[in-house]
Amino acid sequence: MNLISPYHPEIDSIWQAVSATGARSVAVVSALPREGASEIAVALARRAGQCAAAESLARPGRPAAASPKTLLVDLDLQQPAAGRMLGLASQPEEILRVEGMNLAVLGAISPETANAWRERARLTEQLAAWRSDWGIVVLDTAPLLNAERRRGRRTSAADRRSSPYSGEIAGITAAAAADVCILVTLAGGTSGTRVREAREKLAAAGANLVGTILNDRDNPTLLAELDRETYRFAKYFPGWMASLRARMRRSPILTVRV
Question: What is the DSSP letter of 34?
Answer without folding.
Answer: T
